Amino acid sequence: MLSDRQNQILKTIIREYTDTANPVSSGHLKEKYNLPFSSATIRNEMVELEENGYIAKPHISSGRIPSDKGYRYFIDNLMEQKESSRQYQKRLEMELLKLRAKNARLERTTAKLLSSMSQCLAISGIVDKKEFYDFGMHTLLEDPEFENRDDLSRLVMSLDMIDENVDKILSRVKNNETEIFIGEENPMKEAKNCSMIVSPYKLKDGEKGLLAIIGPKRMKYARNRNLMELVRKVLGRHSAILLVAGSSVWVIA
Fold it and tell me: Tell me: the pLDDT tens digits for 130-181?
């Protein structure tokens, strides 16, 4: 385990890199976040974090970025769990139902909603039917991490074969819970430069579904995991039958 000071510095590095996508220097941390340590202390702690593999230097600049190990430590030990307000849950539910009313495919509707709210590539589908939809590849094109088109090409190819990868993905999910995979942890090797959040669910008729989002390693993990949990709960509560009249939507449970 890291010291309390190292925890605070690592958490702040991840926060800053998530927001900016720029390597983080000790001087910048001190100036922007007013940490209660001297610049020299922050610099020394960053050297130790780097030596232990929690952060890395991407190039010759003085800045550092979180490593896969750093993100994993953050998720397992430092990430805050925030409960969504009831108002937010209802808003998400209504957004899903509105989209559903315009589109007969629940899976595609869900992928579109997840992508728009997470700003990641989203996958949604029914495991039993091996029928999956993805949405949001354009969002990845806007992230600086995906300037390498070879990486994107491999990811696109893996999505074309997502039905063949489902069993591999589900085999890595424990107790049907939402799981986060970072870099090399990814069940799909083509996504090794990304992070993936996977969440299985079950519809009221017993069919098994799968939700996943794929994005840069600097994604907002707490927010996106919470989003996945909410969407799977909504899908588990409702049947696939909707009645639409005017601007109103009713769900037949």
Answer: 889 999 998 888 888 887 778 778 888 888 888 888 888 988 998 889 999 9
* Rounded CA separation 220/233 (Å): 20
Name the CA dihedral angle for 85, 90, 96, 99, rounded to a multiple of 10 degrees: -130
For residue 26, the Cα-to-chain-centroid distance in whole angstroms is 27
* C-alpha distance from residue 128 to each of 170, 176, 198, 201, 240 (Å): 12, 15, 17, 12, 16
Q: What is the pTM of this model?
A: 0.87
CA–chain centroid gap for 231, Å, is 13
